[in-house]
């Protein structure tokens, strides 16, 4: 079994002449929580898209447990255990919150027994409570606030029982009180062995969750270190932390 559950090798993606990913190598050991940081427009979402099959890389490799998944469709990569959430999750108009969670199941279409159905219903009720969505369970998912949609998208991702969860700005738009709840939820998910790659600008959140951070800038990883070491790295301060703090861009 590969030492790394997720790796990219010389991953490239350009939009026209703009080389957003210019040969990116990352290696994520099983069970790790990694922060993927960088200035706005540095390619973090592009990286998640290329890893999860929402975008085909121009060159390079994506490896899941050592096996190449480069260029596979997103649903095929999801079936292999890597699920990605989005910065701005869109929700179907006609489905309630509970319906969205039910549809998110890996086994949703194949509930052969009453036992399985009862088990699924109980898992969904647990998720509704854990993500503080139980009071809106019967409302249309599209009517939720931005923060609630974020929570629902993470809860739905968990229904697929991922081995690797890639989260794109999980706290953006989420009420500050709920951010600590998300840290607790993600910590307990990680304790069950789920590896995570988290794109996030909230440095408090990153420090609470991530043992390691990768910083992306101008197409390359410019730092790979624990969060508390980031401010000691002059390239990171120059490219990201310094400027972003000046602009108020990094949520402390
Ligand atoms: N489909 C696309 N077509 C053309 N350019 C794109 C496309 N997707 C992304 N880009 C460009 O690639 C660059 C990286 O975008 P990306 O969204 O990956 O950055 P990011 O680091 O996630 O930014 P942010 O922190 O603001 O969310 C940006 O300049 C963006 O305009």
From TrEMBL:
It comes from Pelagibacterium halotolerans (strain DSM 22347 / JCM 15775 / CGMCC 1.7692 / B2). Residues 6-243 form the ABC transporter domain. This is Branched-chain amino acid transport ATP-binding protein LivG. One of its GO terms (cellular component) is plasma membrane. Keywords: ATP-binding, Nucleotide-binding, Transport. Pfam families: ABC_tran. Belongs to the ABC transporter superfamily. GO terms for molecular function: ATP binding; ATP hydrolysis activity. InterPro entries: AAA+_ATPase, ABC_AA/LPS_Transport, ABC_transporter-like_ATP-bd, ABC_transporter-like_CS, P-loop_NTPase. It comes from the Bacteria. CDD domains: ABC_Mj1267_LivG_branched (cd03219).
């Amino acid at each position: 079994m590969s030492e790394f559950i997720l790796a990219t090798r010389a991953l490239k993606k350009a939009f026209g002449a703009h080389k957003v990913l210019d040969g990116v190598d990352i290696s994520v050991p099983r069970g790790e929580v990694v922060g993927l940081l960088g200035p706005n427009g540095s390619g973090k979402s592009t990286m998640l898209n290329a890893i999860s099959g929402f975008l085909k890389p121009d060159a390079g490799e994506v490896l899941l447990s050592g096996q190449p998944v480069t260029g596979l469709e997103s649903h095929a990569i999801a079936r292999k255990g890597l699920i990605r959430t989005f910065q701005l999750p869109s929700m179907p108009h006609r489905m309630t919150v509970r319906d969205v969670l039910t549809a998110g199941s890996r086994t949703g279409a194949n509930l052969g027994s009453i036992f399985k159905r009862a088990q699924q219903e109980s898992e969904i009720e647990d998720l509704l409570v854990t993500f503080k969505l139980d009071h809106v369970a019967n409302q249309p998912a599209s009517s939720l606030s931005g923060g609630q949609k974020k929570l629902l998208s993470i809860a739905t991702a968990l229904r697929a029982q991922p081995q690797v969860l890639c989260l794109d700005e999980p706290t953006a738009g989420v009420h500050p009180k709920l951010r600590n709840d998300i840290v607790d939820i993600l910590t307990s998910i990680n304790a069950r062995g789920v590896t995570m790659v988290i794109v996030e600008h909230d440095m408090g959140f990153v420090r609470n969750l991530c043992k390691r951070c990768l910083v992306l800038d101008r197409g390359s990883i410019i730092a790979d270190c624990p969060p508390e070491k980031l401010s000691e790295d002059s390239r990171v301060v120059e490219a990201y932390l310094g400027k972003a703090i000046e602009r108020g861009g990094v949520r402390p």
